[in-house]
Design goal:
Number of helices: 24
Helix content: 55-70%
Strand order of the largest sheet: 4-3-5-6-7-8
Largest sheet: 6 strands, mixed
Number of strands: 8
Radius of gyration: 30 Å
């Protein structure tokens, strides 16, 4: 009998599985499943169902597809993730963060045709699933970590804004042509000014939103379910659909069926880019949420396996009339608080939603669209991050402005272009420190061990004829020329003629072909000026690369020193001066 809670929720057992079972964590859970877990999983699954239904329908509408497909995109991914997902507590399904990028692709291609809309959305899910699975199998699950926190805040704030604005027309029952968040806001304002708003619809939606936000403070109260049920009863009892309050209407009875998604004449490039974009968003959110719950239960989850599980869930959704899905930061805590022990919680939830579709689909007939919009708006409000941005502005303003640029990109150009802007900025940010890194000329400071930057310590003593130069980055194609320029400038600015340069190479973690050729040229230039180039504290893997690039013999093995101090002692000894104490 296992008593460690981390085993019941975590990833240790999953990750220790060997062979093909490693990729099927659900079977590992089944092999060790304990009878005492069953009542808790079943109860948690039934509690979870109260959120799965209204949220699934609302996020489907927000993504530009009919509401019933949100239930399809709930059932199938939960079943797939139960087999392939490494986290025993995570709940997957339609997500507010994906609504804007899905809508950005679906709306212009589908042009109001529901069957075409779901075909396009399903194609995006297939692309997203394949992208995640390939990345997971190649063990590239770390890629989303390249997006810094300010950039993630920026695009999530932008997506939250886009989602919120996309739901406002439904709140007022005004139909507008999608043209980007800011232009949509102007069109909505014009529609309200022209008297097109339905204030009954707005009253229902605003009351639903207020109730959801009020009940949010009570963690164990199913606020979304209560608000949506009351809105549905209000419309039904007072016959508000007759005064222009739009409702969900009759949804088809039955379960999702296998369908090969294809929309002839569709913009396949836009679908592919959109699928990859939602894959990055969904995995970034899923990996953070998965790690959060794993840490809570003192376990870990393999990010590459998480990517495979997410990919399998998306692929299954795409082939069974669904659309791209992600983990849920609102439904997962509900499952955890209800006592969920394993993925069986999600399976129970999926089966309960399927039973509802089979037995009582008309229960949701009078569900008002403005109430669904309120559900999405409440979720979008939860996506905003302002508090930590204030801290970032206080401690590092340039990263704050990076976040604002990402936000503006999504808000002005839409979700997909905005996400592309965020990725480009992330790559530039990633390269910047290596492209224009810090460097230093070193000297001895009295009463301090070692050698230190003379700019920070102007009193530092420099050794006549010796230049100690430190480069705080890998050497690669983008900074190779700058390295040469800065080193030669330091030679020219030396107060005494330089006879030897020692590069303090501990921070240099890599060398590529371009930088190796630069070093070859630098050796020639320094040699013509009677200056020898030495290295100190160079890491063995970097020396191995220099050997492979045929530079070790050119430099000379005796010119590599284990420490800066030994390089200085060697120079002082050769120049006939007693070595300094380090």
């Amino acid at each position: 009998m296992q008593s460690n809670r981390s085993v019941s929720h975590g990833g240790h057992d999953d990750n220790s599985a060997h062979g093909w079972l490693r990729w099927l964590p659900g079977f590992v859970v089944l092999k060790e499943y304990q009878a005492s877990w069953l009542p808790k999983d079943v109860a948690a699954g039934l509690v979870l169902t109260t959120m799965l239904v209204p949220v699934g329908i609302a996020y489907a509408e927000a993504s530009g597809v009919p509401g019933v497909y949100g239930l399809y995109a709930t059932i199938i991914p939960l079943l797939a993730y139960a087999v392939f997902g490494p986290s025993r507590i995570l709940v997957l399904g339609p997500d507010s963060a994906l609504a804007a990028p899905i809508l950005a692709v679906v709306a212009p291609i589908a042009a109001g045709d529901p069957s075409r809309a779901i075909a396009v959305a399903s194609m995006m899910a297939v692309v997203s699933g394949l992208f995640c699975i390939i990345m997971g199998l190649l063990r590239l699950g770390f890629v989303t970590e390249l997006l810094s926190k300010p950039i993630r805040y920026g695009y999530m704030n932008g997506i939250a804004t886009a989602v919120l604005i996309s739901q406002l027309p439904k709140l007022f029952a005004i139909r507008i042509d999608e043209a980007g968040p800011l232009r949509d806001l102007l069109s909505l304002a014009q529609g309200i000014a022209d008297g097109k708003a339905n204030w009954y619809s707005f009253a229902v939606g605003a009351a639903t939103l207020a109730l959801i936000l009020f009940l949010k403070r009570f963690e164990k109260v199913p606020g979304i379910l209560i608000a949506v049920v009351l809105a549905t009863l209000c419309v039904s009892v007072f016959n508000l659909d007759s005064v222009g309050v739009k409702v969900l209407g009759k949804i088809p009875q039955g379960l999702p069926s296998f369908a090969m998604p294809w929309a002839s004449g569709a913009d396949l490039v836009k679908i592919a880019l959109g699928g990859c974009a939602v894959a990055l968003i969904s995995f970034a959110d899923t990996s953070v949420l998965s790690r959060t719950f794993a840490a809570r239960f003192h376990s870990r989850v393999d990010p590459s396996q998480e990517m495979v599980g997410l990919g399998a869930a998306n692929l299954a959704a795409g082939f069974f009339q669904g659309f791209p899905i992600s983990s849920s930061s609102s439904r997962t805590p509900v499952a955890e608080a209800a006592g969920a022990r394993t993925q069986l919680t999600g399976v129970v939830g999926a089966l309960a939603v399927a039973a509802l579709l089979l037995a009582a689909p008309n229960l949701m007939r009078y569900l008002p669209n403005s109430a669904l919009a309120a559900v999405v708006i409440a979720a979008a409000i939860g996506l905003f991050e302002f508090a930590d941005l204030k801290r970032i502005y206080r401690i590092q303003q340039w990263e704050f402005w990076l976040s604002i640029v990402c936000f503006a990109g999504v808000a002005v150009f839409g979700a997909i272009p905005g996400i592309c802007i965020a990725v480009v900025i992330a790559v530039i940010e990633f390269l910047w420190d290596g492209w224009r890194p810090h460097f230093a000329v070193l000297g001895r400071v009295e009463d301090m061990r070692g050698y230190h930057d003379i700019k920070r310590y102007p009193q530092a003593a420099r050794i006549p004829g010796l230049l100690l130069f430190r480069w705080d980055a890998p050497l690669f194609f983008a900074n190779a020329e700058l390295f040469q320029e800065r080193l030669l400038e330091a030679v020219d600015e030396s107060p005494t003629p330089v006879r030897r340069v020692v590069v303090a190479a501990e921070p240099v973690t890599s060398v590529d072909v371009t930088s190796a050729d630069m070093l070859r040229e630098l050796i020639r230039i320094l040699g013509e000026r009677g200056i020898a180039l030495h290295f100190a504290e160079m890491k063995d893997p970097v020396r191995d690369k220099l050997r492979r690039f045929e530079l070790t013999e050119l430099i000379g093995g005796e010119r590599f020193h284990p420490t800066v101090g030994s390089a200085v002692d060697d120079y002082l000894s050769e120049s006939g001066t007693a070595p300094q104490q380090s």
